[in-house]
Predict the 3D structure of the following.
Amino acid sequence: MALTLIEQSKLKDNPLQKGVVMCFPEVSPVLEGIEFLNVSSDTYKYNRADMLPRSDFRAINESYTEESATLDAVTESLTISGGFSDVDRALIKTQGNINDIRAIHDMLKAKSCAMKWQKTFFKGDVESNPKEFDGLQARLIGDQLIQAGSSDGGDALSLIKLDELIDQVDGFPDVLYMNKTMRRRLSAAARLNTVGGNVNYTVDEFGRSVMQYNDVPIRVIEEDEEGNAILGFNELASTGSTATATSIYAVRFSPIHVFGLQCGDMDVLDLGLYSGGVVFRTLIEWISGFSIAHNKGAARLKGISDAAITA
């Protein structure tokens, strides 16, 4: 059974592990929504249907024309990510409670790991870094990649294109991912009645206000662990060589659309005194990845410039 990290954290008895696991979805809108399936290997193999088998009507004494489904064999590789959280024993001796100081450092390390995973979910590229997994930018091609226009440097977001992005996801997407600027432009368009009553608000798992467009929650993707914008205006548009465009992603999370993979639960290990007894060390490590099991599980609208939204 696939569970979100929030649901997984509720099953933890160890307070250290529970706190670290809960930090991941709190920091990352992606890790808040995606469900993870437990696998027992560093790879996950399955068949993805590219074309449904034929169905037909027939007359009396006629036969059916046989036509099988077209299946695409897919193998997903899981990757190892994480890091050490070290706290000098002298800090604990001079600054107070060992649990309080270590908890602060462990949460900061967990936040960094979550932001790294989230960046890879969008921007991961195995060709440039074989140790990571391919992200949405590398995976979404063909009909799942929509161009905002054809201008060098990008085109203003069109609501027609945004609706097209939503329609390109099977059923209905669970979320739209974009940067703060694009959310702000949608909010401004709502105030000017450009988008009419299509913008409203809900709350997330942590009680935070979340804007919606046509009932699809909008989640902001901010910076990675190094302070660099993940969905900044630094992408190439469909034409030209000026990297001043951004993308918006629509994703449906479910066990048959887009879901996470993990080989066992996230490890959060208290290694005690380490490095000759100088530091207290915590190891955070996660063998994980994700899969797009449906050919319309996600879609990308690329080539969006930093300009006012058009109808």
In short: The domain at 3-51+71-132+257-292 is CATH 3.30.2400.30 (Major capsid protein gp5 fold).
